[in-house]
Amino acid sequence: MSSWLLLYIIxxxxxxxxxxxxxxxxxxxxxxxxxxTVNTKWTTSTGWVTTDDCCSWYxxxxxxxxxxxxxxxxxxxxxxxxNNQLSGYLPSSFSLLSRLERLDLSHNKVKGDIxxxxxxxxxxxxxxxxxxxxxxxxxxxxxxxxxxxLGGVCSVVGGLKEIxxxxxxxxxxxxxxxxxxxxxLTILDLSANExxxxxxxxxxxxxxxxxLNLYYNQLRLSNSxxxxxxxxxMLVKLKYLNVAFNLLNGTLPSQNxxxx
Length: 260
Ligand SMILES: *[C@@H]1O[C@H](CO)[C@@H](O)[C@H](O)[C@H]1NC(C)=O
Ligand SMILES: *[C@@H]1O[C@H](CO)[C@@H](O)[C@H](O)[C@H]1NC(C)=O
Ligand SMILES: *[C@@H]1O[C@H](CO)[C@@H](O)[C@H](O)[C@H]1NC(C)=O
Ligand SMILES: *[C@@H]1O[C@H](CO)[C@@H](O)[C@H](O)[C@H]1NC(C)=O
Prior knowledge:
Elements: H1 3-17, H2 23-35, E1 60-67, E2 70-80, E3 87-89, E4 102-104, E5 109-112, H3 115-118, E6 123-128, E7 152-157, E8 162-164, E9 169-172, E10 187-189, E11 194-198, E12 211-213, E13 218-220, E14 240-242
Parallel strand pairs: 2-4, 3-5, 4-8, 5-9, 8-10, 9-11, 10-12, 11-13, 12-14
Antiparallel strand pairs: 1-2, 6-7
One 2-acetamido-2-deoxy-beta-D-glucopyranose binds at residues 222-223.
């Protein structure tokens, strides 16, 4: 091997280890891309997995924050790939995108169940105010108060705000863990999928929810078709509700219903 080649390899290794971007977020996106291109090619895939900086890839938005002049991030805050020929199962590693706020994969062929998304809740983490350039480790440790965040501040990050998955091939049930997203979720659009089982009662805990679209699935209450859970009536901010074309029957609970 020539010494030039060796030098080239060392330079490459140094260059890739010093990337300024959130490495765990980018590698979660690489797994997502591999899972969603098994038998298909995306309509648009500019940048995907060909450069280290996933913030520049098509459909990816990153955020950055500053507190008192100290910068944190960037991290992946939105993934928007509607109508782009995605096909495959959501990998479990998707939940590593722990600071994702907006997800739009509408009009694709995303399969599997949505349980991985229901884990992506807001978390309290220690932000180290002494370092400005450590996008991954900044968010590592959990905290309950500034007292167990010595040298840093306790801050809430992430939590899915918008889930748009209309017109895919998702199956399985909507778990009661949906309540994990109670602090943040404003839009839940799972219309035109193959979801089964009951609408979970815990849906009533999503106090920030503005839009709930479960149109055209096979949802029901318990084992027989039945009424829409009373708890939907507790969604005080709800402005749009569509549960048509399911196996539900009965009347809507009357509390706080949005005007039809
Ligand atoms: C930011 O600075 C202000 C005033 O200097 C201080 O009161 C506040 O605690 C600081 N906030 C953080 C998060 O360090
Ligand atoms: C979801 O669909 C897959 C096939 O695409 C199947 O293997 C799996 O059993 C289904 N899951 C449920 C809960 O129906
Ligand atoms: C649904 O039906 C199955 C089998 O018929 C039964 O084992 C299960 O306990 C039922 N679940 C509920 C919530 O009634
Ligand atoms: C809903 O469907 C169930 C099972 O078919 C039936 O027993 C019940 O009477 C129906 N309720 C209403 C309000 O139509």
